[in-house]
Amino acid sequence: MRVQETAVLDPGLAWLLIGIFTLIYVGFGIWFGRRDKELDQFVLAGRKVGLAVGTATAMATWVTSNTTMMAPQLAYQIGIWGMIGYAFGSVGLLLFAPLAKRIRTLMPYGYTSGDFVRLRYGNLGWRVFLAISVFYSFGWLVSLGMAGGVLIHALSGIPYWQGMTVILAACVSYTLIGGFRAVIGTDFIQSILILIGLVVLAWLVIGGVGFDEIHVSLELERPELLNLLMPAAIMFLFNNLLFGMGEIFHSNVWWTRAYSFREGVGMWAYLLAGIFWLPIPIVAGFVALAAPSLGVNIPAADMVGPIVASELLGLTGAIIVLVMVFAALASSLDSLLAATAMLVVRDIYHRHFRPQSSAQHLRTATKVTILLLGVITWLLCLPRITTLAELLHFTGAFVASTIWPIAAGLYWRRTNRLGATAAMALGSAAGITAYFQIGFYVAALVGAAVSMVIVLVTTWLRPQDFDWEHLREPPPDDH
Amino acid sequence: MIPSSLQHRSICRHARTLWLLVLVVSFPGVLHAGSHAPEISASPDLARAGYFHLRWALNDVDVDHYTVEEAADPDFTDPAVLYEGADRATVISGRSDGTFHFRVRASLADGSESGWSDTQTVEVAHHPLAQAIGLFILGGLVFLATTGLIVAGTSAGRRAAGGA
After folding, report:
1. What is the helix (H) or strand (E) element at residue A103, kind and residue range?
2. Pairwise CA distance, residues A215 & A223, whole Å
3. Cβ of A454 under 8 Å from any chain B Cβ?
4. Which residues of A touch B90 (CB under 8 A)?
5. Can you give the pLDDT at residue A6?
C-alpha cells in the first residue's frame, strides 16, 4: 500500500543515479570476473583474498539494509537501546575471527558451512541445518529486496515494486557475470562509499539539529525512547547480539569468506571488520532520533532513515542516502546470492541429486542458481507483507539455535550429532514460540539459550570422540 | 382543491427527489461530504513495546489532506492534532503505559470535509520489568558462555599447535 505522498528526489534524477551505479557495479563485475574460469576461482576467488580486501568485504557485507535502514527503525521504535543494541551486532564478527582461523585450519578444501555440518554431525543434522540456512537466506534476501524498494519509494516516490526490481536485477547481473571475485571487488568500493556517506550524514544532522533539541523533543513527545529501563529494549539488547552471532556463525556468506581468505588473514580481517562496523549502526540510528524534533511524519518505521535525511538535508541528503544505501544493499545482496547459490548447488544439488558432477558442471549450476534465486526473491518481495525488522527477526529464532552446535562442533570433539541436531530443532521451536508469545525482540535469545542447554547436557551425557581429520574432505574433480 | 401551480411545484419537487435518488444509487461518489468518513486502524492495538502503526484512508474521492486527532478520552473532549497532511499512515513510538484514542477526518479537493472516522483505541502496556531483566540476564549468560567456549577453545588450539 502506498502510504507516503511526499518525496524529495525527482524520479528522473533517482533513475539516473540508479542507472549510473548499476552500470558501475556491472562494469566492475565484468572486470573482476574476466579470468575466473574454474570453480575455485568463480566461487572462492582462488582462496587468495588478502587482508585489505578481506576486511572491506566482511565489513561491507555486514553493513546492509539491516544497518542503514533497520538501525534507524529500531532507534525510532525502541529508542537508545535500539541503536546501541544494534551495534552489538559487531560482536558476531569479532567472535567469528578465531572461528574463521579454525575453519581454515580444519577444512582447507571446504566450500560451504553445510560441508562442515555434514562431516561433523551426519546427514540428519546437516538437513536440519540446511533447512534453517536456506530459510534464513531467503529471509535476508527478501529483506534486502524490500529495503531497496522502500528506500527508492521513500526518496523519490517511484513505486516500490519498480525500485525493488531494478536493485535486484543489478545485483543478480554482476554476481552472475563476475562470481565471487566481483562480489568482494565491489564490496571494497561499496564499503568506501558507505563510510563516506555515513560520516557526511552524521556531520550534517548534528550540525542541522543539535543534540539539545533532539533530547528535549524526545523527552516531551516520546519519553520511553530515552528510558534506559524500557522492558522491550532491555530484552532486545542480548537478543540482537545473539541474532548477529547466529547469522554469522552459521551462514555460508561468512564461511565462504573464511575459506577464500589467504592463510592467516581470516582472523585479522574479521576482527578489523567488527571494529570498523561498530559505530555505523549508532550513527545511522541517531539520524532517526531527530525525527520528532523535525516534526516530520513517518508513515512506516522502516522508512525513517531516508525520510529524516531527505527532510533535513533536502536534495543533497536524499542523494547521499540513495548512493550509500544502494551500496550497502548491493554489497550484501551480491554476497548472499553467491553464498546461497553455492550452498544450494554444493549441499542440495550436488550431494543429493548429482554426486558425479564435475567442477565445470557445478560452476554452470551455480550461475543458474544465482539467477533462480533472484527470480524467487523478486516474487517473494512483490507483496510487501511486513516491515524489515519483523521479517528479519523472525529468522532470528532459527539462526541463533545454530550458535552452539557450530561453536562447540568446531572446538569440542565430545559434542555429539544427536545433541547438535536436537539443539537446532528444539532451539528453533522455542525461539519461534517466544516470538509469538512475547515479541520479535526475544526470539533469538530464547532460541540460543535452549540450544545451548541441549548441547551442554547431551555433550556431558553422551560424549563422542570425533576425529578432526574427518573434516579434510578433498575438493570435487576439476574436469 | 390544490391549485395547478402548486400541483406543478409538487411534481417538480418529487421529480427532483427521484432524480437525486437515481444519481445517488448510480454514482455513490456524489454523496461524499459529511456522510462519508475515512477508516482508521491500528497495529497492534495492544502495544507492548510502546510503538504502534496507525493507518487511515478514504477511498473513491479526491482527498486534499487528512487531519488526525488524538485524545485521552473516547469522547474527544480535549483533542490534539497529531498529524495534518496527505500521508495515510504514521508510526507512533516511545509512549508510556496508557490508553490513547484516535480519529481522522478528510478535507476534500472541492473544499468540503468528510465526517470523523470511528474512534480507534490503542492501549500501551509495556512488558513487566522483572520479565525483561530475567531475559536480559539469560541473554548475558548465553553470551558469556559462548565467549568462554571460543576463548578456551582457541587457547587449547594454540597450546596443541605449540606442542606439536
Report:
1. helix A90-106
2. 10
3. no
4. 297-299
5. 56
Min Cα–Cα distance to chain A from B67, Å:
13
> Peptide bond before B44: cis, by omega within 30 degrees of 0?
yes
> CB–CB of A298 and B91 under 8 A?
yes
Average pLDDT over residues A184-190: 78
Cα A261 to Cα A52, A457, B151, distances in angstroms: 11, 35, 22
Q: Using the beta-carbon criterion (under 8 Å), do B129 and A242 form an inter-chain contact?
A: no
Put simply, the answer to whether B140 touches A238 (Cβ < 8 Å) is yes
Rounded mean pLDDT of A238-260? 91
- The whole-chain average pLDDT of chain A stands at 86
pLDDT in tens, B65-97: 999 999 999 999 999 999 999 999 999 999 999
Distance of residue A249 Cα from the nearest chain B Cα, in angstroms: 12
CATH fold of A11-388 reads Sodium/glucose cotransporter (1.20.1730)
Give residue A54's pLDDT: 82
Q: Which of residues 194-253 of A touch B (CB under 8 A)?
A: 218, 221-226, 229-235, 237-239, 241-242, 245
* Residues in CB range of A413: below 8 A, 6 or more apart: A464, A465, A466, A467, A468
pLDDT exceeds cutoff 60 at B32: no
pTM, whole model, 2 decimals?
Answer: 0.81
Whole-number pLDDT of residue A42: 63
**Residue recorded with cell 490503542:** B122
Domain ranges of chain A: 11-388
Interface check A399 vs B, CB under 8 A: no
A100: CB partners within 8 A, 6+ apart: A254, A257, A258, A261, A266, A267, A269, A270
Q: Which of A4, A70, A77, A304 would you mutate first to test chain B, the one with the most B CBs within 10 A?
A: A77
| Domain B33-127: top CATH class | mainly beta
Measured distance CA(A128)–CA(A350) in Å, rounded:
17
| CA distances for A348 relative to A127, A131, A179, A357, A358, angstroms | 9, 10, 20, 12, 15
Using CA atoms, how far apart are residues A114 and A102, in angstroms rounded to an integer? 16
Cα torsion A224, A225, A230, A235: sign = positive
- Whether the pLDDT of residue A454 is over 90: the answer is yes
What is the separation of C-alpha B1 from the centre of its chain, rounded to a whole number of angstroms?
60
Task: Identify which of A213-222, A353-362, B100-109 has the greatest average pLDDT.
Answer: B100-109
- Cβ contact, residue pair A299, B138, below 8 Å: no
The answer to ipTM > 0.95 is: no
Nearest by CB: B143 against A101, A232, A241? A241
Give the whole-angstrom CA distance, residue B60 versus residue A225. 38
- Measured in whole angstroms, the distance separating CA A279 from the mean position of its chain's CA atoms is 17
pLDDT class of A65 with cuts at 50, 70, 90: low
Interface test with A, best of B90, B93, B96, B136 (most A CBs within 10 A): B93
Of A223, A300, A449, the CB nearest to B89: A300
C-alpha cell at A217: 523533543
In this prediction, what percent of chain B has a pLDDT beyond 70?
Answer: 77
